[in-house]
């Protein structure tokens, strides 16, 4: 397993370089930059404009700027925001906590809902519970996260007034844990619902396949309780495809969280990303892209390790 993890990390280096270079090219060919935007908002002489362009290295060739950015990145420096005049690392550090809290809460909530629904559907196929879970899975796969977010915001905040519709805390308060959780309910539900459909279907399908295996029939023949058969024998062996679904959906969770943060005014990296794109502050965009890329890669490595925990045969083969 350690050798496999090292190989995985090494294989991710080319992916990281290709991804960051692609974003760098797109940023370079995008119309305007932060200095142009500042110049349009303030009276600036041509000399002052060229001085800013030179100060931020925007007059250098593309490959030179990318090489300099990469070299600075390996030294722990993501650059400085042209608009905010702050280190990009500091700006991301201020926003990454709320984003991770939202995404992890949504993921955990989705797993806690999907697995019981999938188990109930598998043990009583074509029953009322199976039909309900299948319908829920279909809706979860078909409905875009931004549309669901707008619907939830309109119904539960604008119309019913049950939950607050904006931010992490109530304005003018010190921000208690209860207030944070109260604001978290709607965005976390939307994040969870986007993953719910695939998890329910995979849990149901995996269990239906496992329940017909000989070792499950043997466990029942030994007189073990249905609870022990489900948890110890059936569910554990059907978790591997569930983990696969989670690993494949991590990029979609991150991408969906960007939209959801905008809808609910959640002060995370998604909101910062949109603000930076609108401000043409591409040093911040590159920093956020790099951070998301690293987080997704690390999550995939962690899930690979989890595979080995669930099935030691996988660990030995690697």
TrEMBL record:
The chain crosses the membrane at residues 100-123, 135-160, 180-200, 239-264, 284-310. Residues 96-303 form the ABC transmembrane type-1 domain. It is found in: Cell membrane. One of its GO terms (biological process) is transmembrane transport. The keyword Transport applies. Its main location: membrane. It is a multi-pass membrane protein. This is ABC transporter permease.
